[in-house]
Amino acid sequence: MSIVFSPSLRCQLPVLLALLQGIFVAIFIMFVTYEDHSIRSPFHNLTEEKEDHLTAIFPSFKDVHLMLFVGLGLMLSFLKLYSFGGIAFNFLIANFAIQWSLIVQGFFYHYKEGKISLRLENVLDAEFAAVTALISAGAVMGRTSPVQLLLFSALEIPLFVVNDWLVNKYFHVIDIGGTIAIHIFSCYFGLGVAQILYQPELRKTHPKEATNSNSDFLSFLGTIFLWIFWPTFNSVLAKTEAARLHAIINTFFALSSGTITTFALSSLIDRRGRISLVYLQNASLAGGVAIGIIADLISPGGAFAVGCLAALSCILGYQYLSPFLARKIKMQDQCGIHNLHGIPGIIGTLSSIVVILIGPTNTYSTSLHEMLNDSNLGIQSPVLEVFGNQNTWTAKDQALGQAAAFGVTFGVSLLGGYITGLLLRLPCFVHPSKDYFFDDQLYFQIPEDNKNKSTTNEKLHQHLLTSLKHI
Amino acid sequence: MSIVFSPSLRCQLPVLLALLQGIFVAIFIMFVTYEDHSIRSPFHNLTEEKEDHLTAIFPSFKDVHLMLFVGLGLMLSFLKLYSFGGIAFNFLIANFAIQWSLIVQGFFYHYKEGKISLRLENVLDAEFAAVTALISAGAVMGRTSPVQLLLFSALEIPLFVVNDWLVNKYFHVIDIGGTIAIHIFSCYFGLGVAQILYQPELRKTHPKEATNSNSDFLSFLGTIFLWIFWPTFNSVLAKTEAARLHAIINTFFALSSGTITTFALSSLIDRRGRISLVYLQNASLAGGVAIGIIADLISPGGAFAVGCLAALSCILGYQYLSPFLARKIKMQDQCGIHNLHGIPGIIGTLSSIVVILIGPTNTYSTSLHEMLNDSNLGIQSPVLEVFGNQNTWTAKDQALGQAAAFGVTFGVSLLGGYITGLLLRLPCFVHPSKDYFFDDQLYFQIPEDNKNKSTTNEKLHQHLLTSLKHI
Amino acid sequence: MSIVFSPSLRCQLPVLLALLQGIFVAIFIMFVTYEDHSIRSPFHNLTEEKEDHLTAIFPSFKDVHLMLFVGLGLMLSFLKLYSFGGIAFNFLIANFAIQWSLIVQGFFYHYKEGKISLRLENVLDAEFAAVTALISAGAVMGRTSPVQLLLFSALEIPLFVVNDWLVNKYFHVIDIGGTIAIHIFSCYFGLGVAQILYQPELRKTHPKEATNSNSDFLSFLGTIFLWIFWPTFNSVLAKTEAARLHAIINTFFALSSGTITTFALSSLIDRRGRISLVYLQNASLAGGVAIGIIADLISPGGAFAVGCLAALSCILGYQYLSPFLARKIKMQDQCGIHNLHGIPGIIGTLSSIVVILIGPTNTYSTSLHEMLNDSNLGIQSPVLEVFGNQNTWTAKDQALGQAAAFGVTFGVSLLGGYITGLLLRLPCFVHPSKDYFFDDQLYFQIPEDNKNKSTTNEKLHQHLLTSLKHI
Q: Which chains sit next to C, with 3 or more Cβ pairs under 8 A?
């Protein structure tokens, strides 16, 4: 696999972006339209409904933006020489992925009579899809070019849409916060790509792979933004106000207990009792990932317990599992997405099975019962034939459905990641040279102070030209 | 008083956190539940009310989070060697204090038939209580260990709840923004603790007690976040929409005039007319503290005047009163909470008395009259016997009630602070050694660049071990 | 023109601020009042309306604050030695301008029976006016004293109010997001001032006019905050929910396509394909400026196209037009407001004319038709006599109205800027000496680390005293 910086960034990035954006603009002009409100306007009830609707959904829209662009952007800027790469490529990929998801989901779900009718929820749905691309990219951050990242998300989004449809249609998965559909999917897709793009020289820490106190501080600030708006993320798809209320409070509780667990365990692991910034930046959020799947169904105390468990497993993952997997199966997980999204996602899936199986005995059974009854309405679903062999959809069937949704998502995403990785390895796409992993100066006109002092600007240019000659 | 770093952080912090979090989880599982909406669901009106309710309260919930975790977190990160201590311990204490307040307030106010029924307002109330702990901790920031801070807030929260109940029950205090209940209380509680923990070596500026331009900049950014969401804080408890509207605009006006006053006075005080960053970071917010008590009752012009007065008194406090009190009564107020919360709180209390006494002659009397009439409904209140000696609750009684509420809060908080301070001084709890005041490297695994260059990592470890031997 | 730092900052700034704030407080006390809700309270419908109203408008109020104080404040902090000047003077001028706009707009629009009745929308309107002052100030940032900036905005606000009234009254301008009224106006006002304050020594880059990676990073973070809340800005004045919905989504789309265009074009322009941080910080927002004028009227595809075009023109402006104008007409545009507000504003105006002329053939014609019909209700408008010479207001008339509004705004603002510039040049006001352009240490008590190492504190003081002697 060639990792010299052979094809020029200047040739590929503008062309790819212009091409994709041009196609998207054309598609939007040809196919996408707003609902015609003039037809509706006589029906005042509909108009009113619409108003309430906008008041309810616009704040969530902004909250999700704060999470994606500020929260995740800052969080990914933890490397001192790659802070612009962290925040700016997140910004680029997010924008690309949202537009692309709007098109894919539009044709998949909302295409009617030659047109896709657009509502604000569609944009919100697209942003949830985009999250997947942003999480996955964390696995290969700093050692892939923006060209590769664009192709990466171009392939991931359609697969996400299909898998999301699959687990809802066939397994009636209960997963309000996207623990399986978003976190598990993006984690194993990203790890699949990373596996194929395995770079042996990264077995040792790369000299540029370092933080400084400012980048660590801003990254933690990003964590806090994600933390604050996570309750919105987990509650926005709730169908009743009670479910929404429970999802908000439970997510907050899981995050809160996860945070305290993070401080406790991190201090315990260090021989001098000091807190690790990496754990603080990541494990504080593990509760939000795990609780997502049952945020509307669990009791307050249960939410606390899940949060503790998630943070615990996340830190143990960083401390023991990641190094082990790095040795055994050559896993290279740059941002530790396996620890923040994979493991807490598994904890969440297991919790959902426990809640579903023992749930009906407690207060929150009502909504669960309603969900199961809702599922019974769709009794012709093929899944009943596979799992149920009976006429009703019981809690046990639902528990099996959760497990199956996890399994399918795991398989689909890992396989998709492998295939995507193979494509990204093709030498025709821009790869950063290993000397310029985690280095902003390859991609940005950065001020002098942040440049790697050993390489002057001209030396870099010279070096790149030389590399080109050797191909 | 022993201030060597004797008991190990690693022994105490994880144990304390795990213990407290474990107890909290158990309490939540045993006692805390959501309202059973299935019972309610036939009554559609109630459901509707609920919906409006969530739409109204969830945004405030997020605003308060932005204030606590981003605003206050950034603001407290002004020391260059203690920026993680500022933001991360604020994060830790906030989470702990919110959980603890939920339990204390739950048993105090909402315990019924063996269960505490949880609503989103309860969480919001708990966050107001937690604010108290965060403000108070400012007085001893950087010279107390997280173990001490946890115990600190564990003791402060119950006292806050009792005092809050006291001033409402017995003095019918008018105080929508918590000027007395939150700001005065937390200020004098914190100063009480600081008084007992008096450290003579801090009479001179500690070598590590310094800012740099980045920490000052981010701290000011925190001030701006607090500034933006303060109108939410002061208006969230308003009972009518008119009161809420006035509270929002008046708080904004008081902050705005306070900010301009800060620029003016700060420039006037410096011999070259330059603005002090400390004053900018703090006095810009003084208007918000002072106006809180009458945010719903005052006229726009009055709000402007109170804002000017509050900023003025805050800066004069920093410039003249704090150094005086430091000499005379050995006050050690690390973040200047006396200037930002104490003095503007007194200005606010006095303003409230003026407004109540002369209020009925102007437009905003209506709501005040209603409040006084509301108080008359609770005419069996013992306070009438003490203060009123009559059957009606007049403006004069209310003015006396305000003064009494201030006095009681002052006494209770200062006394509580003294007792808490005595406990925290016990040598069994982890104390930072004076060489490591204001130093992140004692508590965090920070990157090399931000370490105090004179002490290498190993030297620190050696030093700590040596300290331990001398006990 | 004298640019030594002759009149003392300490004499002028506090006096000016205290004077202005004092006058404002007096005006508010004498003239400004809240509506008397006690009169209204029997009419429950009105009360209800009010409630919905506050729920709808308060979030926008906070969003605009996040844009003004956090977004714009951070964005303007891109110079490493002038980061406090960027964020703090933005904070000062914003507060001053909002108060002043409340008074000017209050007397202009809401003065009745000796009183100005205050609503939350009035504050929002005042903030839109204040935006103008903040944008304009970008043209002379770092080379004007706060005293000059205060006078600057004191003169700009009334002219903005008059021009805004003019283009609405006489040209029925369609401009929901203020592309003409705010962006075009503030751009040419600012450039007018900058033209008069022309400083020959700035033809070469000033030694202090440099960024570092931290200031560039935080500035980009500011861009992201502006980006996130721009849909609020462009939609807040919408009169129907459909219009509001379209304005939100279209603004988001224009920003998104503009961002991708920025990455593409910026990479194309650089010989090594690297992204320029300046373009990223600015051109990412160009779509929001351009789409404002037709955010409620255009189709989704159209919004995408306008966004691409706006970002394209913005970058070409930075790359080619600004250097050309600097040489030819001595334009000195510190923050490039011509490229971010002027050129995209022109693109927006042209787009609005195209949409209005060809609009009626597509779906969004309904609202446009309604607007034209609304205009027909005001048929006695003198503009019909000038433009229309007929009894109905057609799309062609509206297109002419848009062009005329642009022309008038351009002329009024440029002329106003010239006059303001002449006043600011008067030697009686504090001017920074050219050695202290872009230098925080003239205005702030900054920590040692960020001082220009060549000048010690005492040297600076000495230098200032010497300057004073020479007058």
A: A, B
